[in-house]
Amino acid sequence: MRLAFAGGPRAAPTAGHALAPSRTGSVAGMAAAGEFALLLLVALLFQAIGDGPDDGGRPPAAFLVTAVSGALVIVFANGMAGLYSRPVLFDARRRRGRLAAAAALATMVVMFGTLLRGGGPLAPVPLSLWCVVSMGLLLGNRWLLSGWLQRQAAAGRFRRNVLVAGSPDGLAPFAQTGDGDGGVTLVGVVCGDGKAGDGKTGVAPARLGGVPVLGGVDDLWRIARDHGVTDVVVAPPWSDAAAVWRTVRAAGMAPVDVHLLLGPAPGGGAMLVEVARNPARGWTAAVKRGQDVVLAGLLLALLGPLMALIAAAVRLDSAGPVLFRQQRTGYNNRPFAVLKFRTMHVERGDASGTQRTVRNDPRVTRLGRFLRRTSLDELPQLFNVLRGEMALVGPRAHPVGMLAGDMPYEQAVADYAARHRVRPGITGLAQINGLRGEVDTVEKGRRRVAYDLLYIDTLSWWLDVKILALTPLCLVKGDNAY
C-alpha cells in the first residue's frame, strides 16, 4: 500500500517523552480561530455603539476591512511569537507580555491603515480603549483555555497510546505518565506472528520487557482498534529489511501515526522518524469535518421536502418501514448502522449484505429501482454524516459481510482494512470514476480499494469539493446502479 508522508519524514530526538500529546495541534488552530473571532466581534461592537476608531465617515464595510486586518495581525503576531505552542497554551502565565504586545501592534496597524486610506481625524481614546479591551480579552481567553486544557489532560483526552511493533528495547520513556499535558502510555507490543516462544519452553511470553504482548503483526490493525492506539512505533531488527517493511505496512492499515525507532537519542530517550500520519486528524481532517456538518445541514434543509415525498412514496409502494438499517464497516473498522430509504421488499431483503444486488433483481421494488439508479435512496445518510459516522466524501461504506466475487472483501483485497482510516462517504473517488453497482469479481473489488487508498493519500478539502461537484454527473449516467 502507499504511505502518506505528511511533510516528509521528521527525525525527533527526545529525552523523556518521545511523542507530543495528540490533538494539541488542532487545539492550537482552535485557539487561533477563536481569538480572531473574538477580536473581530469586539471591533464590530465598538463600531455598532459608535465608539470604534474614526473611519472618516466611510461605510461600515471599510471599517470591517480595518477590523479584520487588526485581528489577523494579532493572530499572526501571536503565531510568530510562538504563542500557540503547546507549553504556552497549557500555561496561561507564559509570555503574557507578548500577548499584550501583539494587541498593541494590531492597534498601530489599524491606525496606520486608516491614515493610508485617507481617513479623517483619528480617535486616539477609542483606539486605546480597543487596544486595552483586546489585551484583556486575549489574556482572559488564554486563562480559560489553559484551565480547560489542563482539565482535559487530567482526564486523559490528550494522552497518546503507543503500541510497539518489534522489540521494546530502549522504549522506557514511553512508560512515563502524567507530565501535565496528558502524557504517553505504552499499551503493549506486537512481535512477529505473536506465537514466538521464549527459546526455552516454546511458549509465547505474556510480557516482553515488562510490556504485555498483544499479538502478532498481522493482527496489528485489530489490536490498534481495540486498545485505542494513537501511535505505532516500529522497532524490528534492522538487519531484517523484509520484517521492517511488513511491520510498517501492517501499521499503515490503522488510523494511527507510524514512527520508526532509529535508536537511543543522546542524553536519553529515543530517536524517532515519522513515516506516516493518521489522515483522520490535523487541520485537513478538522476542515473536512466542519465542511461536512455545514453542507449536510444545508442539504437536509433544502432536500427535506423531497425526502418527505420519497418517504410517503416508499410507504405507498410496498409494505414495510420507510428506512432500511444495515450494519456497515466504518471508521477504524468499527460497525455502524447506515440509514437508507428502503428499496427492497421486506421479506426478501438481506440485512447481512452478503447477497449482491444484480440487474433486474426481483427483491427490488418498482420505486426502489428508480431510487437506486438515482442514488436518492442514500439521502438519509446525511443524518449519518451529522452523527459523525460518515462523511460526504470518502470510501464507500460496505456491509460487514460484503463479498468481492465469491470471497469476503477483507480476504480478497490485501489492503482492505486501510480504507477505514477515514470515515466512509456517501460519494467518493471510486464512484465518480464509474465504479458503482455490483462487485462480482475480485478485480473490481481491488480497483475500488485502489481508488479509496488514492483518495486517502491525497485527502484535501479541495478534492472533496471536486468530487461533490462531479457526483451529480455520475448520477445522471447511472449505468451500473441497480
Explain what the structure shows:
The structure is a single chain. By secondary structure, this protein is an alpha/beta fold. The protein has 14 helices and 14 strands. Helix 1 runs antiparallel to helix 2. The longest helix is centred in the middle third of the chain and has 35 residues. The radius of gyration is 27 Å and the shape is flat. The N terminus is likely disordered.
Structural class of the secondary structure composition?
alpha/beta
The end-to-end span amounts to 31 Å
Instruction: Report on the biggest sheet.
Output: 8 strands, mixed
Q: What is the residue-averaged pLDDT?
A: 78
Please state the overall shape, judged from the principal axes of the Cα atoms. Answer: flat
| H/E element order | EHHHHHEEEEHEHEEHEEHHEEEHEHHH
Low-confidence runs: 1-18, 51-59, 118-122, 176-182, 196-202
- What order do the strands of the largest sheet run in, or round the barrel if closed? 1-8-7-6-2-3-5-4
- Structure annotation, total helices: 14
Rg measurement, Å: 27 Å
Counted beta strands = 14
Beta percentage is: 5-15%
Helical content band: 40-55%
